[in-house]
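Listing 4. Sequential folding, example run.
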Amino acid sequence: MKDIPDFRSFTFFQNIDPQVILAAVLFFIGVSVLVVVILAAIAALAARSGPASSGRFLVQRVDGLDLDQYFAKRATFSTTVRLELPLGPEKVWKALCDEEFLSWLPTVRGHQYRTDVRAVGARRTLLSVFCALEEQFIVVEQEKTLVYSVIGASLPGLRDATERFVLEPTKGGGTLLKWTTGFSPVLVWWLPVRWLSPFIRPFLKIALSGLRHRV
């Protein structure tokens, strides 16, 4: 039977001051409590998410005249998804502007518009389980191009975010839909996360494919 090692024989442990160990334990407990408090606060804010809470934290509006530059360079993350749909541009356009857009996703409850207008300047609120985002239409070309920028959020951390939808009719009477999305966080906007694009695109394409069953 092997002897059980006596950890007290290691000089490393023998030379540690008990006060240092106590300080380390207290520090660990303090950090753990702080993390729990922060997560609880975020959960509480998320639980209160709704149309009125979407403007709690301001988000920088992206200029509609500088979209290519934004998606190509300024956004921390940006990617484009292409999906061909057996539906005409008019039906796809209607689905993009509908209150139920993306509501087929488990965490999305849909959109709520301020008015019935679907023109430049129109605002709507994306309602999800975790947060609410206030979006403003900045480019509207009927049945061709729809661009909106996030201008408010119920939770902090988002510096800017914009999405662009481009509709192109196909020969068979369908539509080639191009969805470009980009965003930048407040604190770590400099992180090189664009390399994640190939891994995220399949999930975005699956999310967008829900349009097939909603039109």
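-- end of first protein; second protein begins --
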Amino acid sequence: MSASILDDLDIALMTIDGVGSTRMGSVTIACVPSAAYYFMPQVISEFHKLFPKIRIRVMDASANEVNSAVALGEADFGVSFSGNLAPEVDFELLLQERYVMACRRDHPLATCASVSWEEMYRHDYIALDITSGNRLVLDQALALSRPNKESICETRHVTTMIGLVEAGLGVAAVPSIAMPMTAHPFLVSVPLVAPEVVRNVGLIKRRGRTLTPAALELERLVRKMPLRSAGN
């Protein structure tokens, strides 16, 4: 019996009530931290209800590390943003998101309908260091809108930036999905304009790799997230 037929049989069995709960194994997904924050809590919760004996391993890492993990087969698939992908990796768009300014509710810009990059840079701000994939996106988009003063500090990950913003050290430009999805007692996000900068977030998979039935089910749940978000 061929491997493809066995996989089809395995997928069919996983959809039968009571059978999925007995399946065992593991699935590895590589995610940039902001995507892990947005996608994985609900995805893991739903997956665990369906397949409680299958363990999910989340590799939260930089875009370059996610790309490498998928290309080398260390992860079944990944969620990252487009740009500088390995030639053996395919990208499939899930959502397009804009960058916003993260700030505390008591910051002077917190009540603005939108803020220009130039205006944000007049205040104390936290930046991403040169190794960050988000830094590359912003440097390319803002080649003509350079800051008029240096940042007070640099971090490698967006999640660290948000923690520093919450502590009151300054404002920061972050992808919108990195911000809390419900009302936060201290933080707000304000759309950044002039220009509006967006990034494409999607699935990355090694070309020619066949996912296991468990990985396919996890991928299906990840795909549902942008649709769920759009419907809220």
